[in-house]
Design brief:
6-stranded mixed sheet; two-stranded antiparallel sheet; 2 domains
Length: 293
């Protein structure tokens, strides 16, 4: 993609996605995330009625009397968008490629953070952490984040979420909103996902394509296929193999759902044949409703 084309795409996303965020996304983002965290402010001498759990043992030991830690509500958040740009995200049989859906989701989150004066960072994932833009504020930084998601050319083709998520967990010292946008067509990342979920408010966004769920059963038809991550090629007899493929895909999705449950996180499923932001909006509204109870 030429630089002029990239700039035009970024501007289009700013107009289209930014307008959607202003009209319906930003308020849901604000109601879900603002005021969720508390940060340390100072210590003061213990007084009757204070919660003993707030006693700072180190300060109390040095002073020879009890001191308690005081906290204030965090006034800003940090949102880290971790986008899987491995080769499987280049697939798309419907209205858009999975990468295009991921870009729109990343742009919406970045603009929501911008409107709420929050920091936003970007992690590009393939078979590791390929690119890292540290969290910052401001429109220029948000546009740089979107430009990277849109135009970054990955060095790795394969998906390996475990090493990337483990590295992110080590890098991110303070609690943040960590949104992982991927098709999650990988295995062996359950431990890393749990680690991230323990340290951060983790939101997995699963990008799906309808053709990945099932193949058309057609007598006498043979489909030539190629794995975009490994380059392996093969033939599928649609009459004989479509049923087996659908069962294997259901088993894969059931296992992925189990991994998310084990990590205690609620996934968001976005499909390439539907507006990609609708499931994210619905997710925010569900969380806002639960939080208001």
């Amino acid at each position: 993609m030429l630089p002029q084309e990239i700039l035009a795409q970024v501007r289009r996303l700013e107009i289209v996605t930014g307008k959607l965020v202003s009209e319906s996304f930003s308020g849901d983002y604000l109601s879900v995330f603002k005021g969720r965290g508390m940060e340390f402010a100072s210590v003061r001498e213990y007084a009757e009625g204070d919660d003993p759990r707030d006693i700072d043992r180190n300060v109390s030991a040095r002073a020879g009397k009890a001191f308690v830690r005081q906290y204030v509500e965090e006034r800003e958040l940090t949102v880290v968008i971790a986008v899987d740009l491995s080769a499987s995200l280049s697939f798309g049989s419907a209205d858009r490629q999975k990468r295009e859906a991921a870009t729109e989701i990343g742009a919406a989150l970045a603009f929501a953070a911008l409107q709420n004066n929050d920091k936003v960072g970007l992690a590009v994932l393939t078979d590791g952490l390929e690119k890292w833009l540290p969290p910052r504020k401001g429109r220029r930084h948000v546009l740089a984040v979107i430009r990277e998601i849109l135009a970054y050319e990955p060095k790795g083709a394969r998906t390996a979420l475990a090493p990337a998520l483990e590295r992110l967990a080590r890098m991110l010292k303070r609690r943040c909103i960590l949104v992982v946008v991927s098709d999650f067509r990988d295995s062996g990342f359950e431990r890393a996902l749990k680690l991230c979920a323990l340290k951060h408010d983790l939101i997995p966004v699963v990008i799906e394509d309808p053709r990945e769920a099932s193949l058309p059963a057609s007598a006498g038809a043979v489909l030539a296929v190629r794995d975009p991550e490994t380059g392996a090629e093969g033939l599928i007899d649609l009459a004989a193999d479509a049923g087996d493929y659908a069962r294997e895909e259901r088993a894969r999705r059931d296992e992925l759902a189990r991994v998310f449950r084990a990590a205690g996180v609620e996934p968001v499923a976005s499909s390439t044949d539907k507006p990609p932001l609708d499931p994210l909006l619905a997710f925010f509204r569900r969380r806002a409703k639960r939080r208001s109870r």
